[in-house]
Write a structure and sequence with these properties.
The chain has 299 residues and is of the alpha/beta class. Helices cover 42% and strands 15% of the residues. The strands form 2 sheets. Strands 1, 2, 3, 4, 5, 6, 7, 8, 11 and 12 form a 10-stranded parallel β-sheet that branches. α10 packs across α11.
Length: 299
């Protein structure tokens, strides 16, 4: 059993906050990701959508395209309409051999609104989550048939944020709906990362590892900040630079038999947190934690 270590470009350039790393090129991002030892990256806004252009770029840097974010809208569109909306991204991921499609429900989300507190996010009733789950399963079955399975991203500011909402969504969906376990978002939401990992291990098909700065999170909640203000103030960081016990988390991944990608996705201001240095800190922390847990890392 082995995991693979990847990183998201959000530490270099933030698509939701263009002022963060707007001047950093894709070339720098990929070069430094490889320099830090990663074998794959997730997609960002600076990546070309044409596989004929992207394949040689990735090959030049000896990196694989792991996956990337898709802003789902199934709460307000039909399954057939969602198929049309995802068509271009799905074609890219199929051509690039991506193992999963990162899917998050973004209808009503406040994650990109810098003046709206994250506490003002939309919420669904249990019955609404159950009905949504039925629709999500149908769409996930489509993605599975297209050989790019769904990995559902619980995310701050969205309708699926808390441990309880994750549980209900998983209970309300079938196996084609995979779960993206994000250590930073679940900790931010007050959830139990280890318990959730072990409870839904059979459904976890992608992992995001971001760390949390507890002091910033405490201030964020006390002053009712927006999600993006939290990002600007440094609520997130890479493993090994915050408060989450990644040694225990890697042991949990070992327990559930996880063998997919483990991706660092820690949005920060690159002028405050040098992307290459952060990538190296995260690589060292995850490598050490994986070794201690008995998880081998494939190149």
């Amino acid at each position: 059993m082995a995991i693979r270590l990847g990183i998201a470009p959000i530490g270099w350039s933030n698509d939701d906050l263009p002022e963060l790393g707007g001047d950093i090129t894709l070339e720098q991002c990929l070069k430094e990701a490889r320099q830090a030892g990663y074998s794959g990256v997730e997609k960002g806004g600076k990546f070309p959508m044409d596989p004929k252009l992207l394949k040689p770029i990735m090959a030049d840097h000896q990196l694989e395209l792991v996956s990337g974010w898709f802003s789902g809208r199934l709460l307000e569109v039909t399954v057939e309409e969602e198929k049309s909306l995802i068509k271009e991204q799905l074609a890219l991921y199929q051509a690039m051999g991506c193992p999963v499609m990162v899917y998050a429900e973004t209808v009503g989300t406040v994650q990109g609104l810098i003046d709206t507190p994250v506490s003002q996010r939309p919420k669904l009733t249990p019955d609404q989550i159950r009905r949504y789950g039925e629709k999500l399963t149908k769409f996930a079955e489509f993605l599975q048939a297209e050989h790019c399975p769904m990995t559902f991203h619980h995310h701050m500011g969205t309708v699926i944020e808390t441990e309880e909402e994750i549980d209900l969504l998983m209970e309300s969906t079938d196996a084609p709906v995979g779960l993206l376990l994000d250590t930073g978002h679940l900790t931010f939401a007050g959830g139990d990362v280890l318990a959730t990992t072990e409870r839904w291990g059979r459904r976890i098909n992608h992992v995001h590892t971001k760390d949390i700065r507890k002091d910033v999170l405490k201030k964020l909640k006390a002053e009712d900040w927006s999600f993006l203000k939290g990002v600007l103030e440094g609520v997130f960081t890479v493993p090994g630079d915050g408060s989450i016990d990644f040694g225990a988390f890697m042991k949990s991944l070992k327990t559930i038999g996880y063998s997919g990608w483990v991706v660092i996705e820690a949005e920060q201001d690159p002028k405050k947190a040098n992307p290459l240095k952060m990538a190296e800190i995260g690589m060292a922390a995850l490598s050490e934690a994986a070794a201690a847990a008995g998880l081998s890392i494939a190149s």
